[in-house]
Structure to design on (264 residues):
């Protein structure tokens, strides 16, 4: 029977532990890259950045998270938190990206990179905006988050881009209102339809859907027997979009169904 000295046993134990830590559960590349191995902060951060540059966003995010776990009080940890959030975003894991960015803000609310963290959260919601025929929860979340960026950091480049995206978001939300309004109109639910069109005119008046919404208000008002309301909508349409197809159609409707009223 072989005997090992205490020193040899200790060496064997350390070697076995190191093997387990570096091999991972399945021996795959991802497990090898992200397994817990104590590394100095700069080496670990560089490894994470290299993975991100290669496009392996999942491993990059895991390694950036490891920077914080192994070196929580290092200045690198703060940077790694944001890089982790960005890595998740780049990999389209928007839930984890939002969580990482929110964690950064909870720990460093006044940090110089806070505007970027807020902007990244807004982008995550923005990227999830769906077609107008589907639920618009993410669209509303994107609207709220982009408005927060503009409100908190009005002089930053993030606010400038957020403002541009707000125009697109509002146009999308207006499109959803129009889609529902048209459905109600086809179903003969004229008052419900008109309320949707009115929302577009009053809440999303700078969007591309406003001319049609005004025409639909003319249309539904006439069906509901409200020629004076139809005249008001037609007048607004004529004053703001005189050359549009929607005004021409509204003018014809007014001439046909309310000849005593002036469309403009």
């Amino acid at each position: 029977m072989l005997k090992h000295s205490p020193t040899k046993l200790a060496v064997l134990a350390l070697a076995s532990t190191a093997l387990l830590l570096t091999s991972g559960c399945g021996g795959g590349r991802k497990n090898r890259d992200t397994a817990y191995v104590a590394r100095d902060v700069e080496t670990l951060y560089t490894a994470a950045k290299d993975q991100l540059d290669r496009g392996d966003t999942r491993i990059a995010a895991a390694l950036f998270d490891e920077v914080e776990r192994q070196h929580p009080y290092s200045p690198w940890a703060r940077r790694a938190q944001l890089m982790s959030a960005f890595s998740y975003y780049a990999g389209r894991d928007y839930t984890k990206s939002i969580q990482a960015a929110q964690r950064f803000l909870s720990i460093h609310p006044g940090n110089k990179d806070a505007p970027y963290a807020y902007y990244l959260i807004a982008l995550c919601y923005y990227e999830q905006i769906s077609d107008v025929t589907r639920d618009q929860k993410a669209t509303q979340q994107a609207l709220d988050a982009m408005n927060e960026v503009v409100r908190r950091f009005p002089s930053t480049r993030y606010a400038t881009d957020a403002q541009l995206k707000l125009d697109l978001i509002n146009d999308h939300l207006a499109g959803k209102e129009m889609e529902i309004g048209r459905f109600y109109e086809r179903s003969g639910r004229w008052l419900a339809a008109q309320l949707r069109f009115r929302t577009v005119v009053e809440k999303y008046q700078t969007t591309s859907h406003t001319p049609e919404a005004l025409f639909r208000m003319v249309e539904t008002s006439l069906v509901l027997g409200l020629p004076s309301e139809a005249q008001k909508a037609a007048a607004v349409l004529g004053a703001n979009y005189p050359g549009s197809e929607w005004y021409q159609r509204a003018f014809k409707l007014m001439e046909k169904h309310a000849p005593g009223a002036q469309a403009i």
Observations:
- Confidence is low (pLDDT under 50) at residues 1-28.
- The first helix runs from residue 6 to 23.
